[in-house]
Design a protein that fits this description.
Elements (H helix, E strand, L loop, with lengths): L1 H22 L5 H8 L2 E5 L2 E2 L3 E4 L2 E3 L1 H13 L3 E5 L3 H10 L5 E2 L13 E3 L4 E10 L15 E5 L3 H8 L7 E5 L2 H9 L5 E5 H11 L3 E3 L5 E5 L2 E3 L3 H16 L2 H9 L3 H20 L2 E9 L17 E4 L2 E4 L4 E3 L2 E10 L2 E7 L4 E7 L6 E8 L3 E5 L1
Parallel strand pairs: 1-5, 1-6, 9-10, 9-11, 15-22
Antiparallel strand pairs: 2-3, 3-4, 7-14, 8-11, 8-12, 8-13, 15-19, 16-17, 16-20, 18-19, 20-21, 22-23
Helix pairs in contact: 3-8, 7-10
Length: 380
């Protein structure tokens, strides 16, 4: 009787351990691909220029990589669309409908327990987008106290939630780069932090009120994601990526899909900043004085040798001596005057007037002073 019980115990234990072994068996998507005779790749399809819609399929840098992987595996490619980065990984984890993810996903150490990542195919990182008229945002620290948009689940979401450089940041989460940039474009938030190429591409193509800083504040790389332990498929994917690198095809994809998009975005941002610097730059001012009818019975020559003095919050500035001829006189402020509001006292005539030095995109201005029954000042 004891022998029978012992044999039953051993048999049950064997079945238990056998069951555990089956539960921890490593996935083998190559078998699934062979059985289905298709390669199933999961993507969001909203990340131009990497994966985005074309007719009933997808195109872009990442889409081309998917096509190359399927070609090397010897089966046609079927794209499977889903929404949300976290949901992509949930679907892949289930292991019933897709073989891998290609959706501009980062090689993320936080997901290493459940997923493996291929060799990287694009080095990138997070940058800052801001309104074109906002010049106070210059780095990560300058986001302190700001409303900042990120795409939920993407690297910028994780980074901005954990960084400590920018203080008191309010994080607003969106479903896509375009949605986040739309809020920024309408001035409903102060900035967007996100993938360098995705932000640059959408800003240049669709959101003309935004500019992109060219400094990466959080580096990472794009890779293909598979289930943890799916070693045979991962090896095949890496073979394809290595081939694309060594044959220079990966660089050709960069040229085809990304091209000069960063340079175009940077040129726009640099141009805006240069214009702003010109606006705020101090100006030399050439002055023409006209004595007009209604100004009273005084001789223009009284202004000969007189100097205009303007005073404001930015300081006090004195012109060269006035030289007159007929009813016209000239002088010049050789010391550059910062834009702003000033007061000018023409003591010799007993007149005080406002002088608003404008923020024109130039470093030299012409000022016309017309003296009639009152004094009018114009700039150009």
């Amino acid at each position: 009787m004891r022998s029978i019980k012992w044999l039953l115990f051993i048999g049950a234990a064997a079945l238990l351990f056998a069951g555990c072994g089956e539960g921890t068996k490593a996935p083998n998507s190559l078998d699934t691909i062979t059985r289905n005779r298709e390669v199933h790749i999961l993507t969001e399809g909203i990340n131009a220029p990497f994966e985005y819609g074309k007719d009933t399929g997808f195109q872009g840098f990442g889409a081309d990589i998917g096509e190359e992987i399927a070609k090397d595996l010897g089966y046609p490619l079927k794209w499977v669309k889903s929404n949300g980065v976290d949901h992509l990984f949930d679907v892949l984890r289930e292991g019933t409908t897709v073989d891998m993810i290609i959706s501009s996903v980062a090689n993320d150490p936080r997901r290493a327990e459940d997923f493996d990542f291929s060799e990287s195919y694009y080095e990138t990182g997070d940058v800052i987008a801001h309104d074109r008229t906002e010049f106070g945002i210059t780095d990560l620290a300058s986001l302190s106290g700001k409303q900042v948009g990120v795409v939920a689940g993407r690297p910028a979401d994780i980074f901005m939630s954990s960084q400590t450089t920018a203080k008191n940041v309010t994080i607003n989460r969106y479903s896509s780069i375009d949605e986040a940039l739309g809020f920024l474009n309408r001035k409903e938030i102060d900035a967007v932090v996100g993938d360098e190429i995705l932000l640059n591409y959408s800003s240049v193509q669709s959101f003309q009120n935004t500019n992109i800083m060219n400094t990466i504040i959080n580096k990472y790389s794009y890779a293909v994601a598979v289930r943890k332990g799916d070693a045979k498929l991962l090896a095949k994917i890496n073979e394809t990526i290595s081939r694309l690198k060594s044959s220079d095809e990966l660089a050709q994809m960069d040229t085809k899909w990304i091209g000069d998009i960063k340079e175009r975005a940077h040129a726009r941002a640099s141009g805006d900043r240069e214009k702003e610097e010109l606006k705020r730059a101090p100006k030399t001012i050439s002055v023409v004085i006209n004595k007009q009818s209604g100004s009273g019975n005084w001789a223009m020559e009284r202004l000969d040798g007189f100097q205009f003095v303007i005073q404001g919050a930015n300081g006090t500035y004195r012109s060269t001596p006035i030289l007159t001829e007929g009813n016209r006189g000239e002088c010049r402020f050789n010391q550059p005057v910062p834009p702003g509001e000033y007061t000018m006292n023409i003591d010799i005539l007993g007149v005080t007037t406002k002088v608003p030095v404008p923020e024109y995109e130039k470093t030299s201005l012409s000022m016309t002073v017309n003296i009639a029954s009152n004094v009018t000042i114009t700039f150009r």
